């Protein structure tokens, strides 16, 4: 990743750079997707833009194509790993449950996905 796009001490920038290990699910020039370390569903994958944005609202404000691509990648992951149905959750702000301040969508899929609580 270019220095400009990278933020020091950001966990997901380090995962994208390979400095912190992850279980990769998908990668292209715009996004990196990997299994959540604490899965809440049969399929629980994080779709992360390679460029550092603090949250999904910043992605939306800066790059519509990237935001649409994150949804397309989520759909593809749900298709590959489950039956194509999925929930896509963007916790935005600490009060809303965001703990890593690099934008990411939680792709939740599999048989019992609908019964997962919205928050712990
Ligand atoms: P959020 O609370 O929406 O910011 O989501 C952050 C997610 O990152 C949580 O679901 C964590 O389980 C997940 N997470 C934290 N550290 C790692 C890691 N090293 N590898 C994979 N997932 C992680
Ligand atoms: Zn980052």
UniProtKB/TrEMBL annotation:
PROSITE patterns from the UniProt entry: HIT_2
Alphabetized InterPro entries for the sequence: Histidine_triad_HIT (IPR001310), HIT-like (IPR011146), HIT-like_sf (IPR036265)
A Pfam family annotated for this UniProt entry: DcpS_C
Annotated SUPFAM superfamilies: HIT-like
Start and end residues of each HIT domain: 11-120
Matching CDD domains: PKCI_related (cd01276)
Motif range (Histidine triad motif): 102-106
Protein name: Histidine triad nucleotide-binding protein
Organism: Bombiscardovia apis
């Amino acid at each position: 990743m270019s220095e400009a796009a990278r933020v020091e001490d950001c966990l997901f920038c380090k995962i994208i750079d390979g400095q912190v290990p992850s279980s990769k699910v998908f990668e292209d020039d715009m996004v990196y997707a990997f299994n959540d370390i604490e899965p809440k569903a049969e399929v629980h994958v994080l779709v992360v833009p390679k460029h550092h944005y603090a949250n999904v609202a910043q992605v939306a404000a800066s790059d519509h194509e990237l935001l649409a691509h994150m949804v397309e990648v989520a759909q593809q992951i749900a298709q590959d790993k489950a039956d194509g149905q999925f929930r896509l959750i963007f916790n935005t702000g600490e009060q809303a449950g965001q703990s890593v301040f690099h934008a990411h969508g939680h792709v939740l899929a599999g048989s019992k996905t609908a019964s997962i609580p919205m928050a712990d």
